[in-house]
């Protein structure tokens, strides 16, 4: 996020949930009208500012920190000011002004055209004020929060907030650095993150979508007390792994809360859902069926439709389909291109609308898991509010008499029961349980990942860790030829998602064990240090401030052997051939028999010589 214009985007969209707000309307008035909780400050770095974690983010504070690099309350500069860069128009004007006055009109016109073209092709430079990280709950968790009774809504919201903070604490501990020295060559630790958190609950199309924007300020305080910019490379390298960790932590937190409060452990089970071609499977609550997920995924449906058309155009233009990287870029571009304008709707109104949609859908095609909800005992649900704000603050939702709340609670209480399935469903589940495997999107997965366990596991055996490390290594091998620890950590988080663990510390420790085991089977590509570094520049783990452990690259013997064979084949100047003995044997053995005047005739020896 850039300073200046980037801060204005933050104020217009992130702080306001993508709703266009009149600049004359105070931010506090917007929060009151929409029901969104105000933003809050987060991070260990707040201690250096004298701001308490959880304090409310003000419009003036955002302007100072993200707009000008200043203390949010006092306005004191935090280190050096953001650098100022000339705009494209200024660069063009300066270049044109430097042209010799002796140029003819035609030559000057050609020069101006060339300058304009060159400057237009240059990527504009802007000072970086912060980094927007977004943590989004699985769609099933958002739908559960939208339709469940207040108690379960509070559990989902609390699990989401706790998972976000645990993931940020991990990021702060492992990837938040600054750089010092000539050309910023040394990477050194900091006193912690300074970030603004904004909790939102819907998409631009109004579907339930619990998510938190985390705007990490590009200002961190070193251990020497000096404020500097953070090391953005380290932050970017960690982003995917931290996102995957959040997904694991949310599943852990929500499962624990539901098991303890709903009363039946099996109801909080999770499973992988196929999201269609060119998309990875999603890990969702079994209590929320696919038809409800589809109903509340209108934004994804619009992007998928646009993606289908774009793939046809891409194939027509290139004669092939896009590769993985091109598909990702294409989807990102379409996500931006298909964004509709968002209208502010208070939460009680959204809740009523969501439940009305679910009621209409389930009346047409009720899911077997929700069938018990249509009995008389589930006719009404409590009329208390749904929790999303911090602490004990609640936002009113209104009455629920449609039975949707009861259906979801019953699904959580009873889980996936055979009496709620058709005979075909029962046969499928039984067969998969006997085989110990299931298929997601055509890919077999072990039962460990497809049907997750629910009991907390204070310790995971070495055998299980070795299996998980093999899964993580297989996944990274399928995607990359070289990788980093962060790449393996992201795959370890995906591989362990089926295991439920009691807290963030055990979850992170398991990930570290899986990564360490996987790395033992990898080949390091980063050479050892070639110089002696003074003790003051060494880290506790033995690396130095001049090392970038997050950038150490690894590969595997399978990749290196394949590369060796490919290079050898490229250097081979001979035509393809086979051993003479093998060729002679094959010529005799497989030659088609010929018939001459009714007699069976084979090749003569000289004919075999000619073939060989």
Keywords:
alpha+beta, 612 residues, four-stranded antiparallel β-sheet, Arc Repressor Mutant, subunit A
Structure description:
Among the domains are: 88-121, no CATH class; 455-558, Arc Repressor Mutant, subunit A, CATH 1.10.10; 577-612. The protein has 21 helices and 18 strands. With 612 residues, the chain is α+β, with helices and mostly antiparallel strands. The chain is globular, with a radius of gyration of 30 Å. Residues 364-387, 389-402 and 413-456 have low confidence and may be disordered. The strands form 8 sheets. A 4-stranded antiparallel β-sheet has the order 1-5-6-2, with helices on both faces. A two-stranded antiparallel ribbon has the order 3-4. It has helices spanning 5-14, 27-34, 59-68, 88-97, 105-121, 139-147, 150-175, 232-262, 290-295, 298-318, 324-337, 347-364, 404-414, 423-435, 447-450, 462-479, 485-495, 504-520, 557-571, 580-590, 605-611, and strands at residues 40-42, 130-136, 177-180, 186-189, 195-202, 208-217, 220-221, 227-228, 270-273, 282-285, 386-387, 394-395, 437-440, 443-446, 523-524, 554-555, 594-596, 599-601.
């Amino acid at each position: 996020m850039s300073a200046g214009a980037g801060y204005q985007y933050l104020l217009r969209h992130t702080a306001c949930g993508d709703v266009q707000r009149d600049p004359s309307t105070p931010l506090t008035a917007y929060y009151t009208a929409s029901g969104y909780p105000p933003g809050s400050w987060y991070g260990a770095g707040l201690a250096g500012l004298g701001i308490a974690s959880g304090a409310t983010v003000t419009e003036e504070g955002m302007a100072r920190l993200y707009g000008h690099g200043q203390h949010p309350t006092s306005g004191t500069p935090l280190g050096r000011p953001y650098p100022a860069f000339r705009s494209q128009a200024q660069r063009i004007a300066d270049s044109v002004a430097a042209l010799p006055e002796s140029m003819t009109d035609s030559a000057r016109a050609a020069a101006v055209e060339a300058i304009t073209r060159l400057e237009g092709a240059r990527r504009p430079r802007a000072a970086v004020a912060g980094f927007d990280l977004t943590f989004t709950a699985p769609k099933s968790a958002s739908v559960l929060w939208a339709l469940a009774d207040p108690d379960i809504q509070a559990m989902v919201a609390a699990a989401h907030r706790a998972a976000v903070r645990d993931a940020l604490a991990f990021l702060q501990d492992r990837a938040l650095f600054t750089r010092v020295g000539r050309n910023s060559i040394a990477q050194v630790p900091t006193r912690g993150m300074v970030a603004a958190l904004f909790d939102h609950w819907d998409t631009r199309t109004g579907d339930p979508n619990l998510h938190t924007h985390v705007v990490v300020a590009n200002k961190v305080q070193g251990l020497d007390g000096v404020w500097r910019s953070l090391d953005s490379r380290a932050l970017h390298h960690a982003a995917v792994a931290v996102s995957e960790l959040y997904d694991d932590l949310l599943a852990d937190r929500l499962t624990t809360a539901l098991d303890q409060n709903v009363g039946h452990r099996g109801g909080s089970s999770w499973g992988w859902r196929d999201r269609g071609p060119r998309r990875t499977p999603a890990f969702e609550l079994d209590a929320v069926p696919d038809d409800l997920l589809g109903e509340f995924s209108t934004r994804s449906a619009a992007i998928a439709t646009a993606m289908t058309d774009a793939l046809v155009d891409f194939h027509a233009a290139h004669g092939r389909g896009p590769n993985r990287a091109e598909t990702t870029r294409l989807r990102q571009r379409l996500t931006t291109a298909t964004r509709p304008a968002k209208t502010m709707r208070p939460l009680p109104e959204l809740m009523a609308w969501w439940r009305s949609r679910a009621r209409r859908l389930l009346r047409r095609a009720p899911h077997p898991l929700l069938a018990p909800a249509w009995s008389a005992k589930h006719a009404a649900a409590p009329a208390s509010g749904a929790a999303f704000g911090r602490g004990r603050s609640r936002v009113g939702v209104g009455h629920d008499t449609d039975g949707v709340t009861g259906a979801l609670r019953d699904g959580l209480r009873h889980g996936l029961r055979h009496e709620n399935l058709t005979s075909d469903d029962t046969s499928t589940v039984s067969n998969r349980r006997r085989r110990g495997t299931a298929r997601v999107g055509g890919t077999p997965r072990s039962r460990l990942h497809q049907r997750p366990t629910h009991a907390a596991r204070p310790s995971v055996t070495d055998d299980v860790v070795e299996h998980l490390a093999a899964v993580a290594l297989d996944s990274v091998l399928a995607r990359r030829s070289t990788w980093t620890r962060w790449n393996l950590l992201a795959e370890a988080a995906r591989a362990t998602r089926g295991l439920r663990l009691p807290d963030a510390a055990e979850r992170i420790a398991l990930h570290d064990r899986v990564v360490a085991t996987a790395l033992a089977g990898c080949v390091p590509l980063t050479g050892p240090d070639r110089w002696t570094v003074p003790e003051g520049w060494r880290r506790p783990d033995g690396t130095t401030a001049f090392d970038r452990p997050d950038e150490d690259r690894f590969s595997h013997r399978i990749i290196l052997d394949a590369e060796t064979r490919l290079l050898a084949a490229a250097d081979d100047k001979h035509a393809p051939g086979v051993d003479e003995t093998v060729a002679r044997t094959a010529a005799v053995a497989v030659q088609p028999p010929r018939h001459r005047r009714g007699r069976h005739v084979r090749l003569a020896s000289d004919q075999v010589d000619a073939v060989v």
